[in-house]
Structure formats: structure tokens, C-alpha cells
Design goal:
10 helices; binds zinc ion
Length: about 290
């Protein structure tokens, strides 16, 4: 079984709904961890000769083209995580289109390659936000990895766990690689990324992997540079959020290494292909964006 390894590349201050870091004009003034920590991640997974998908924030790619090139030079897949890291369900379709276009242009300018994959900030494609799939298709995105099939703070979308196709309001389909949720009885337990992976003991994470392998369903790991960085600057936030943001940062590296040692991983694109739901640009006869409905 080959699982998906992915990283959302953003800085420590790209946290949604935290007042202290909401002013985007202040972002350039903050100390930054994204370049050093991303390079560290690329080098770490290089030790295991594993390929991964890096969903880059356009803001990061614009400001730090060198890290984008570093990821590309090691043969990893580069997708987008939007430009400004705003929640999709709070945007209008036009605002989302503009943000995505900017992000894709910036990343393509650096890599010289089209951007194919998308992950929404905070998994914020929610019921009622399906228009986003049409925007993604219009812009030439060929797969999505944004759906989080469990309730959560800023997202959540009830869908099947396996890779599948979502149908946009226009009737067009888009390949989807959802996040991994383990059900303990009626209780959905996310385990494969962010605060969930930092919080849960290694044994529970490995156990969840085994459950997924039994069902022949790949797990999708999603981590961020700050997940590995106990020295991340702290800002005021509600207690519950503070716990979620900072718990277990020292444990992430060991957990990831133990998985890299014992499991096989590849990019989101490769996993979709293995699961029989290839990204649209890999299918014959489908290549032109903007081909359907205006
Ligand atoms: Zn993010």
C-alpha cells in the first residue's frame, strides 16, 4: 500500500482566525520559519528517498522563490494552497478565482510548470461551497485534496474516505483525495496530520494506518513547517486553540520518521493514479481547462 505524503507550505503566522496575525500588511515584518523549516523537511524525506506533494501558499512562493525551486529540484510535486490562506467558504466565487489565479501564476512563474493540485486553507470547502470545484476546473486544476470527512473548526465535508470524483455544479467532475479519518464507533478520529498527529501517540497512528491498509485505502499525511517547530513564535489566542496549535511539536519528527521507515509514501498525484482516479491531465482526451460552460 502506498500512502500519500503532503505538506502545506505556509509560515507560522498563516493561522486562520487569529486576530494577532490577521493583518497581512504586517506579515513581512514577522520572523519567518518557512524557508529553513521547509528545506529541513525536504532533506528529511530525502533520507528515505520518498516523494511528496507540497501545497505552496502563493504568498510564500512569491516571497521565497528559492524554496520553491529547492522543492522542485528534489523531484517533488508542487501544488497550491491558495495565495492568501483565506477560508474558501468566506470568499465569493470571484474572490476565490482571483486568489487562485494569482497563486497559480506566481508558482508557475517560478517552476515553469502548470499547477495541478489544490488544498484549501483549513480544508475550508464545506457543504454549500461546491462552486469552488468549478472555479478550480476553470483554472486548470486537475485534482483536489481539500475535503475533510469529519466535523472540524473551519471545514468538514461528509464524503467517502476513498479517492473519488466530486461533481461540480456545472456537471464536470474533479478527482478528490480526501483526508484520512478513523472511526472509533461513532466517533471520527483524524490522525494523519496537523494537531491531530502531534497530539496522538505514535502507537495509535500506526494502528490507524493498519486499519486503512486492511481496507486497501491509502492514508493522506498532511503536515506544515510549524508542526515541527517548538520555537514557533507564540501569539495570544483562546486556550483551546493554543493547545491545538502548539501541542506535541517535539514529537512530530519522530512520528514522521517512524512512518517513513515502515511505510511507503508517494505524491498525491501518484496515489490518485494508483487508486484508479487519475488527475485530469493524466487522462486522455481531457486537457483543456475552460472547455465547458461559461
Ligand atoms: Zn494552511
Amino acid at each position: 500500500m502506498i500512502h500519500a505524503l503532503s505538506f502545506d507550505i505556509e509560515d507560522w503566522f498563516h493561522m486562520v482566525d487569529i486576530e494577532a496575525v490577521a493583518d497581512t500588511s504586517k506579515w513581512p515584518e514577522y520572523s519567518s520559519i518557512v524557508v529553513d523549516r521547509t528545506k529541513w523537511i525536504v532533506d528529511l524525506i530525502g533520507e528515505y528517498e520518498t516523494k511528496a506533494t507540497f501545497f505552496l501558499l502563493g504568498w510564500v512562493a512569491h516571497r521565497y522563490p528559492e524554496i520553491t525551486r529547492y522543492i522542485q529540484a528534489q523531484g517533488h510535486e508542487i501544488g497550491t494552497h491558495s495565495y492568501w490562506h483565506r477560508k474558501v467558504y468566506e470568499l465569493t466565487p470571484d474572490e476565490f478565482r482571483e486568489d487562485m489565479q494569482l497563486s497559480m501564476d506566481v508558482i508557475s512563474d517560478v517552476t515553469g510548470e502548470p499547477v495541478r493540485g489544490f488544498r484549501a486553507p483549513s480544508f475550508s470547502i464545506t457543504p454549500g461551497t461546491e462552486w469552488a470545484f468549478d472555479v478550480l476546473l476553470d483554472l486548470g486544476i486537475t485534482y483536489d485534496a481539500s475535503l475533510f470527512p469529519a466535523p472540524r473548526g473551519h471545514g468538514g465535508y461528509d464524503c467517502q474516505q476513498e479517492a473519488h470524483e466530486v461533481t461540480a455544479p456545472s456537471g464536470r467532475v474533479l478527482p478528490e483525495l480526501p483526508m484520512s479519518i478513523r472511526n472509533l464507533g461513532p466517533v471520527p478520529i483524524p490522525f494523519s496530520g496537523g494537531g491531530y498527529m502531534r497530539f496522538l501517540p505514535k502507537m495509535m497512528i500506526h494502528d490507524a494506518f493498519r486499519k486503512f491498509e486492511k481496507r486497501e485505502t491509502p492514508v493522506v499525511i498532511y503536515l506544515h513547517p510549524r508542526d515541527f517547530d517548538p520555537d514557533t513564535p507564540r501569539v495570544p489566542m483562546p486556550l483551546k486553540r493554543k493547545f491545538k496549535c502548539y501541542v506535541g511539536m517535539k514529537t512530530t519528527e519522530g512520528k514522521l520518521r517512524s512512518l517513513l521507515k515502515s511505510k511507503q509514501f508517494d505524491t498525491c498525484e501518484a496515489v490518485l493514479r494508483n487508486q484508479g482516479v487519475p488527475a485530469l491531465h493524466e487522462r486522455s482526451g481531457v486537457c483543456e481547462p475552460k472547455s465547458v460552460s461559461a
